[in-house]
């Protein structure tokens, strides 16, 4: 949030309370902020939602629970994009994602990602940002279309609380935290399958110093390593080599390798999966982190012995946060299924396209890939963003209403960015038309207006376009490029 605006509001509220007699031990009333739209989650999706709403005239308060913007791109060190492409390599995603991509390119650092998102929101005068505020409570009231979120209470690291009230709420947290606080129904992990509530494996990324990238690139051997490749910015594959790798514990899997080359010469490693971790449990995440830190040292020794360019490699730093792929799946007005993804369904209420292969990381160490790494272009229905039973809240998150398998595709960052853009546009549209999100989802004319708005601002909501991003990661046009049958960095 604009610091002066927040301080002024807080000072007014506190001074008003201090002037009144208080019982012993009473706490000052929390500061209250009013906006047309509140976006909770400093994720890429949250930034897109805030920009889309602000650019359409709404006042927006964007709240991050951390001290920066970027979500897993900053906290978990995810430094490359998993892109939505047509089978011929054409981009099927533009809009705000293309804007972000133009700034960051195919690979980036957490620092450049945080700066980019910060500069983007700073350029929009209707968007205020609040940092280091965690949502702890929600006030709701009943409406004919379901519960309405009237206010959200946040707590700062100091313990002070504040309340944000807004006409419309966009939940851009990775686990649908606000929707759940408001009473939304959800499933956990693969719960819908009837097996258990276990979630996809988690990963801890880290960096290596001392890697000779030229030697790495020149040594890639399809016959030895399997399908994969190397560019100036990244390397992926090595599944054939990793058949001979033996993790330290049975709950760790390293089935392939993904490396990212940073401008300072360090190399990021995205490779270690740990199964059996509940991504909502801080203690399990901490235990998983310790397991992966030990495994990283073991893996580094293996790389030194088996891949050219790694003989002097040593661990530089670990990501601040564990990368969590899956937690909750909120129950929405519609549900995206694996059949929708695999058959390439583009519904009439699609707000954007996706095509990432169904990439479900293992839940159990014995799991094998359930789907071939094939792309099918499909649409994200607006109804999957609207939690059932809530009238003025939408999601932009891996927690949208999707099945366990479908979320293996829909969870990637570019897809959540287009969800955020659609949510911001939908908020402005609902405000103009004096309707809520449930009514928008049920009215074909309103949905047509939303899709027209998104398309007019560059988004692709129908059949794929044929143009490509100027510096597309999919166009690996270097002599080092190898054949790729399917790559997973997320």
What does this structure look like?
The chain starts with a helix and ends in a 34-residue tail after the last helix. By secondary structure, the protein is α+β, with helices and mostly antiparallel strands. It contains 15 helices and 20 strands. Residues 1-27 and 466-488 have low confidence and may be disordered. The protein has two domains: 1-194 and 329-471, FAD/NAD(P)-binding domain; 202-318. Helix content is 30%, strand content 20%. It has helices at 3-18, 44-55, 72-75, 95-104, 110-122, 177-181, 213-218, 222-225, 239-242, 282-306, 338-343, 407-410, 413-433, 437-442, 444-456, and strands at 31-40, 60-63, 127-130, 134-143, 146-155, 161-171, 186-188, 202-203, 206-209, 229-230, 234-237, 252-253, 257-261, 267-270, 273-274, 314-318, 328-330, 350-354, 378-381, 393-395. The strands form five sheets. Strands 1, 2, 3, 4, 5, 6 and 20 form a seven-stranded mixed β-sheet that branches. Helix 2 (44-55) packs parallel to helix 13 (413-433).
